[in-house]
Fold this protein.
Amino acid sequence: MLNMIRVRFLEYKPMIPVFISMTVMSLILVYTFGIGFSQEYKPLVAIVNEDNTFESNRIVNELIAMDEFEIIEYEYEDAINLVESSKVIAVIKIPKDYSENVHNGTGVIDFIKTGQVMEHTALELAVKSITERIFGNKDYIDGIEIAYIMSNVNMDREYLENSINDYYNNRPIMIIKSKIYESEAKNTYDSLKQSFMGFTLFFSLFTMVFGIGNIVDNKQKRVWHRQIVSPITGVQILGSALVTGFLIGFLQIGTMMMSGAYIFNIDLGESMISLLLVISAYIISAMCMGLFISGLVKTEQQLSAISPMIIVSTSMLGGCMWPLEIVANSFIRNLSIITPQRWAMEGLRQVIINRGGLSNIVEPITYMLILAIVFFGLSLIPYRKVT
Amino acid sequence: MRLLTVKGLDKKFKTVHAVKGIDFHIEQGEILGLLGPNGAGKSTTISMISTLLKPDGGDIIYNNESIIKNPKAIQENLGYVPQEIALYPMLSGRENLMFWGRAYGLKGSTLKKAVSEVSEIIGIDDRLKDKVKTYSGGMQRRLNIGVALLHNPELIIMDEPTVGIDPQSRKHILDTVLHLNKDKGMTVIYTSHYMEEVEYLCNRICIMDQGKIIAEGTKDELVKANNPKTNIHIKIDRDMESAIVKLKTIESVETVIEEEELIKIISKQDEQLFKNIIQVIGELDVTILSMDIQEPDLESVFLSLTGRVLRD
């Protein structure tokens, strides 16, 4: 096996300049998106305050003060126009009498959005947190406590807390009613992080195809034939391609990710181990898919013709170009489970966007490894077929 | 001792019946030639012997073991030289030799010694550090053979190893094959459509055509068994008509014609033919200016068997 791996690395040697230029080209893309991140990209959000009370104004001011979003106050009609044309990711509407309705448990904030982007969840959580705090028990208790103190009246705070908690237990102080705004432009918005992850996975596939090209070249030069009549086993022949392709692919994706993180300040989440595991599983499954493809072609010309088609279509299918959530067709969404990109995107999303850890990537990694085993098994079937 | 036996070997590729139930064997220490035109089934046959292709029928027994059931039985003892240059062109000659040596389990000083010996045998020891793509066609062919010799195989299969190379490299390859056989005791299966190569090298010859073995034996056996004709061209100074009449009286002579101032004789094989011709011509008052005798060869055997020339 080591002998095969050694010769595969020697085969890669003349291709180092091409490999470097491919990595640099991919890095330029990372740079392009890195600029977006380093300039502190903030999604635009419109807020409509029809209530115009002390509390609703406080909600608006606290939302505007947030770092994560660029929130601007608009009239309702203008806000709808903006969301319809995808110039804002959502409209937060505080309706008339909201503050009053909160007290009788029917207060509703409308959340109007186009499509589905990652930032929606964070925005909803922020609105909920601010509203709860403003209308929350603590504010009331603090206010009452101050009033009692100023009146020189003794107060049992614990008793007061319990009473107020009991009172509000069955009266939700705030409800967010979300509705997806249907418009032609609803799918046009995409997250920059999504693009960064998607393009990294997408471009790395081209480098991996380089490794597959070596196998096809071996077949054309009949070195492959010589190998299979020697004591070298099929697992050694294909396994060595997998190992070298893995290391080269890991080097490339690792370079791109690290460049993104340290040069362009792209936030890669909190768990580096999870990130590395997702990348590793992705490279293994993508390489095994490549090995399977190599069994279907006879010449490098055929591989050159077929590989861009497969890379682009599976990347589109796997959600590298846009979030799978916005794909309406359930058949296409289901079909995506056979692409390593879909699970890699899912894993990266968990780690980079949701800042998840090992427990969040078990499912995508399991699927990627299953795909790897299936593709590797399938690639062993035609490996002895010669012409 | 019988090293390899092929029994009823059969292979089809979709509509082409490439090998049609052939039988032959090879003894240890022999050089067996598979001779036939392109498309005769030689490469398919040796591809099955080398375990590259699986036969549709029949069996191949190597050292009393079926290699169809257990391909490993032959793989470790086989040196396979394909028709194509199956090498890594971007690697040096040494890197290629080291890789293939390790593939057959050689390592350390044994590997280095084998690489050194083989590179000397094939005559590329002064170019070992250069990339294979910079080698001439002949050198690449020699290295192509060299990588099959590193593990000192019991059996070498060579598939048209001299295609498209210069006469000097060709001579070197043929001498290498003889050296391997005589000095190292290696058994060789050699395929070619060059009759003279097979005649020069092989102890025994199987002539293949259209997927079948149409004749088998030593060169002399093949010539005798298939009764090809002897061609003799004689030039005399005068009286050609009388000479033709006299020559026709020789029993083994079939045809005598006059063409371009030559008397052309086609005869059956006859050990007394030359003596009889001299005697008959001597009875006339003429002088023989030249005599060209074309003994029957494998080409004429093939012509006699198939009605076609070997290189069609």
